[in-house]
Amino acid sequence: MKRQSDTKKGVLTGPSQRQLRAGELIRHALVEILREEELQDEALQNISVTVSEVRMSPDLKHAICFVEPLGAGLTGQDAAKNTGEIIKGLNRVSKFLRGRLGRSIDMKFTPDLKFIHDESFGTAAYMDKLFLDPRVQQDTRRLSDVVDDEDEA
User: Fold this and answer.
1) What pLDDT score does 152 carry?
2) pLDDT string in tens for the chain (153-residue length)
3) Looking at the 3D structure of the chain, how many domains does it have?
4) Contact present, 62 and 56 (Cβ < 8 Å)
5) DSSP strand pairing (62-70 vs 112-117)
6) For residue 8, is it within any domain?
7) 122, part of any domain
8) Which of 26, 89, 95, 103 to pair with 60, CA 20 to 30 A apart?
9) pTM of this prediction?
10) What is the full DSSP assignment across 61-122?
11) Cα–Cα dist 30/40, whole Å
């Protein structure tokens, strides 16, 4: 999670425990709602969505939901276009999801929802691909040899 800077002390601080708890509560509730509800938007028909993270504003009135669409059935350029349509569809039905969320969680305010594509899955796949590169494996073997030599000394 990206750290917020505290201008008073010049120290980096993260989200509060309250924000983290509320984000997890909303994430779990959203997963259940998306699993059970049949959403009427055309872009969301027969699509499964993974909600990987929910970041809450300090006042808990706004939630940014990081999602990864699954089952789009497309690859390459079409997948990116389809993912964009799915995210737009989720943002179109966000008021409906907010209403369902209000019934399933016990919070003073039900936050406004904004959906964003989670890029971390693509980044992880890219890193896995890099680690399979023979040149990188050669470097990691050299590094492990150096570490083993230091342990023996």
Assistant:
1) 59
2) 455 544 556 666 888 999 999 999 999 999 999 999 888 888 888 888 899 999 999 999 999 999 998 855 445 555 666 888 999 999 999 999 999 999 999 888 999 999 999 887 778 888 888 888 888 777 777 656 655 555 555
3) 1
4) yes
5) parallel
6) no
7) yes
8) 89
9) 0.72
10) SEEEEEEEEE-----THHHHHHHHHHHHHHHHTHHHHHHHHHHHS--SSPPEEEEEE-THHH
11) 16
Nearest to 95 by CA among 111, 109, 107, 83: 111
Which pLDDT value is given to residue 42? 87
Q: How many residues are there in the chain?
A: 153
CA-based nearest residue to 111, from 62, 152, 65: 62
41: helix, coil or strand?
coil
5 falls within a domain: no
CA distances from 59 to 55, 99, 105, 119 (A): 12, 19, 16, 26
Q: In the numeric block, which tokens belong to residue 128?
A: 């896995």
Quote the tokens at residue 55: 């970041």
d(CA 62, CA 15): 14
Q: What is the CATH number of the domain that holds 65?
A: 3.30.300.20
How many CA atoms within 13 Å lie on the side-chain side of 15? 18
Which residue segment(s) compose the domain that 48 sits in? Answer: 17-143
